[in-house]
Amino acid sequence: MTGAESLIRTLIASGVEMCFANPGTTEIYFVTALDKIAGMRSVLGLAETVVTGCADGYARMAEKPAMTLLHCGPGFANGIANLHNARRANTPMVNIVGDQATYHRPFDPPLTTDTEGLTRAVSHWVRTSNSAQEVASDGAAAVQAARTAPGQIATLIVPADVAWSEGSSPALSLPVPARPQVAPETVQTALRILRSGEPAMLLLSGTALGEEGLVAAQRIAHTTGAKLLAPTQVHRMARGRGRPPVNRIPYPVDWAVKELEGLKHVILLGSRPPVGFFAYPGKPSLIAPPECAMHVLARPEQDAVTALEWLADDLGAPRSVPIPEAGPKPRFASGRFEAEAFASTLAALLPENTIIVEDAVTSGRAIFPPTFNAAPHDWIQITGGAIGHGFPCATGAAVACPDRKVICLQADGAGMYSLQALWTQARENLDVVNVVFANRVYLILYAELHGAGQSPGPASNSLFNLGRPSLDWVGLSKGMGVEAVSVETLENFADVFRAACGRRGPFLIEFKTR
Ligand SMILES: Cc1ncc(C[n+]2csc(CCOP(=O)(O)OP(=O)(O)O)c2C)c(N)n1
Predict the structure, then answer these.
(1) How far apart are CA 113 and CA 99, in angstroms?
(2) How do residues 390-414 score in pLDDT, each as one tens digit?
(3) Ligand 1, from 442, 462, 466: best to mutate by most atoms within 8 Å of Cβ?
(4) Which residues of 430-445 are buried (b: 16+ CB within 10 A; e: fewer)?
(5) Is pLDDT at 186 greater than 90 in this prediction?
(6) Residue 499 burial (CB count, 10 A)
């Protein structure tokens, strides 16, 4: 058996059944192994940023890692932005990177680079396999690392001769450590803080944003008056009617500071102390007031849900508490695009159990609150600020959940980084409705420029305006096999969106928002 075959068999035995790939010559033996071995589905991404974004979306929904198959250092490097987003989301992922054969590398052929160095930048675990005899156990260790809470990026570099050499055999899967529990004393500390009556907030992230975590957090909020918030970027959150409506910390620093004003305690569950997305002259880096104390109730790798349940029980919170009203009921809006009106229309039409994937930049921020009263859904979002995440992430989420509708909310500038994912949606007939907010500018960068007290000049206009030539999203989408329609009003959007949700398969709606 070749090293490549034993590695693929080991990954399958360890529960990895999806391979998102963009292979090359050094991965040929992996491709032939995938040809021979049943149990691993292979999906092609036409750029590595698509491959890694797909693996991220898949793992966030499947709650287990996919494998990526990437070509040497440069192929991996093309995937780094979405690996960065995945790392910030604590997504489990196993990257298999083919590389020069061990004896060929010293001759410095063209694709030779510091592959380990590149992979270390975004991986929690990196190893280069030395022999066909070791590659299978290296693979088992990679899966174990990826699945270790809170979820890690594991990258295994496999030189071509390690992949093609015979004499290998599969390794057994390795156990995955359970999430560590929070110490009882830590729960008691949180209890004392919440009973003190001083203004407190629970900042929920990771598993705390699942349905069970939110319900326990709501019991605590109901009993103590503590505020509940999520970070500005959430990796995955259960939302919609019947679920506690927890808002995110606003993106603009001034709004974020205002939101946390007056707090004396922030209790962290799987989250870091909140900071501004960027620094601005004269504005704070830390969002919470200086006199506010930070307390860690659960680190990202710990069992935050159980910690919340213990805390709710110890506080004597009722098992079932009322869910607070979260803003207006969804309604159909009309006229030109306006983010809240759009959100309300979306909320009115959202199919049950949808997965919303958001990389919508300025068009996306106002969509969150008005969709609290939509049908129950999951919200997954770009977590690392490296734009171009939406299309690939939605593609991977749709692979993970073929029975659920995926709605991808994608800003146009960000969408251009990874639009090839549409082709994968078409080829795999994935059930994704992509909504592109076509404002034909990098609007956020104009806003930042105005925020800095400047006016746009010729360079700014040249760098922030996408209108020359105008991007034709319907043409781009159709060119990759995805049906598409352009709309300019909310009424028109509602009609097209309803029809798109009533059919299966990928679809794209270009919303000309200005
Ligand atoms: C990988 C990466 N490159 C560049 C940026 C810088 N950047 C942030 S937002 C943005 C433009 C966003 O424009 P668009 O996606 O059209 O959204 P809009 O601001 O118009 O809502 C850019 C280039 C980034 N965040 N990530």
Answers:
(1) 9
(2) 999 999 999 999 999 999 999 999 9
(3) 442
(4) bbbbbbbbbbbbbbbb
(5) yes
(6) 13
